[in-house]
Amino acid sequence: MQGIWTTERIRAAEDRLLAVTPDGELMRRAAFGLAVHAAGMLAEHTGSVSGRRVTLLVGSGNNGGDALWAGAFLRRRNVAVSAILLKPERAHGPGLAALKRSGGKIVSLEDGPQWISRADLVVDGIVGISARGPLRPDAAALLEHVGSPVLAVDLPSGVDPDTGAVDGPAVVADRTVTFGALKPVHALAPASCGEVSLVDIGLRLSEPDLHRLDTADVAAAWPVPGPGDDKYSQGVVGVAAGSATYPGAAVLAAGAAVRATSGLVRYAGHAADVVRGQWPEIIATGSVTDAGRVQAWVVGPGIGTGNEGRDVLRFVLGRGVPVCADADATTIIARSPDVLDARDPDTPLVLTPHAGEFERLMGSPPGADRVAAARSAARKYDAVVLLKGHCTVVAAPDGRALVNTPRGSWLATAGSGDVLSGLVGALLASGLDPWLAAGAAAHVHSLAGSLAAGGAPTSASGILAAVPDAIRSVRSYLYDVATALSTFYEHCPVLTSEGNTRASRIALCTATRKVLQDGLGLI
Asked: Which residues lie closer than 8 Å to 403 by C-beta, 6 or more apart?
């Protein structure tokens, strides 16, 4: 699980490290890493490094100093480096001196456009994590001449470092190189940051402010059947969704639950015949009172917001099992919060609002700080809140929060949210922690969207069809890890040294593989 820290925490950690580090060493360490990535981008986009042209956009802060020092390092590889100083009187002194000594060229603001237009790579060192708000007009005007890849120092200038919000002119980077730790902007503004690379500078940080699930986290959490499992032990999920007029929500939500796990799905609602026809493995009934026992409920998509919908939601909330409340269910809760009286306080609840539903639940839109908004809603409703959007934020009542950074915008299609609710419900029925269940479901959901799209717009039905491939892709990551571990154990110098026989190495490999097999059902 990746940790993400707020800029306030990062600055405090940097101050502690600077206090015990020789003057300038930390910046040179960061700048060298930046130069390595810059050289890599030149090689990738032009085929070589030597003789290529890099233009630095240099502001007055430490990010400008990082850019200047990186330019000096690039000069050692025979890169032609020019620096445009947006505030010459406040440029970082040692960095500027280093660039001049290396033969780098200082360019006036007036001559900047021609140097930018001829560059093979532009480095954005305009502002750092202490800045807020959009770019100033002179910097914004320079960006109009950029035609080459852009490498951002720490974050794209003009993007809020703690919320990822863009309120005006801002840099759109092809790659962002950050130092020490990931900041919220790197997870919340993927379209602005591009590919994010982390350079270790030795920061020491405690518990993160925000998390992002790794593929390995999702693979380890996702339930798969073991030798002792049957359809009941893997989780029975009930789905109360859709109507005779709008059966699609029922088909999508129930189908996602089927494809998420190998357990049992019970459907209850007016679309029973349609659901049964599409998914013969589902036990379908016309009413939630006839559905039978389940270990979690998905309720809301397409049930309507009238009296019948309220009765269905109230019944489901009173069953004492985890509930994923989506779509119409969130609207009912917002309009008739007394329905929550049917819920035992200890019963897990996951709410999955989009921005409009969130506004109904909370009385105001999420705003720029979506993490804070989700946390506030989670506390108010004592529930895990999955706030949908380009980046999905999942917050728990205890303050834990994670973000799922998407693979494109392919999920912006009608019905995709119904698929997500089915995934969440299936994971809840398997016994997974609701916060982790919501995060893992969002991860697989976005991957399924990317696989279904394949570079072209897709539909919710296409996303649903791609769910097994998404799960398979996630789990294959662990197989690759297991294979790498086995290879390592076979060839590790320590293990192949005298006193470690081939038999002992094989035994270690076998033990490792058994742990992976028993714990993850993988090999």
From this structure: 4, 184, 187, 188, 210, 211, 212, 371, 391, 392, 393, 394
Helix, strand and coil in the chain, % to nearest 5? 45, 15, 40
pLDDT digits (tens, 9 = 90+) for 409-442: 999 999 999 999 999 999 999 999 999 999 999 9
pLDDT at 522: 43
Say which residues have a Cβ less than 8 Å from residue 314's Cβ, sequence separation at least 6: 339, 342
Q: How far is CA 90 from CA 72, 115, 126, in A?
A: 19, 21, 12
- Regarding beta strands 384-387 and 392-395, do their DSSP bridges make them parallel or antiparallel, or are they unpaired? antiparallel
- Token duo for residue 200: 């270790």
Element (H, E) at 151: strand 150-153
Does the pLDDT at position 488 exceed 80?
no
How far is CA 210 from each of CA 161, 186, 198, 225, 424, rounded to the nearest angstrom?
A: 13, 11, 16, 31, 20
12, 205 in Cβ contact below 8 A?
Answer: no
Radius of gyration of the chain (CA): 26
CA 383 from chain centre, in angstroms, equals 21
Determine what percent of the chain is predicted with pLDDT higher than 70. Answer: 91
Bridge-based pairing of strands 323-325 and 349-351 is parallel
**Is 358 in contact with 365 (CB distance < 8 Å)?**
yes
pLDDT value for 131 = 84
How far apart are alpha carbons 24 and 26 in whole angstroms? 6
Instruction: For residues 397 and 434, give the distance between their C-alpha atoms in angstroms, rounded to a whole number.
Output: 11
Alpha-helical segments (H) within 76-214: 93-102, 112-118, 137-143, 184-188, 190-193
- Give the tokens for residue 423: 């995934």
Taking CA atoms, 261 is separated from 216, 360, 424, in Å, by 18, 32, 11
Cα 183 to Cα 2: distance, rounded to the nearest angstrom: 11
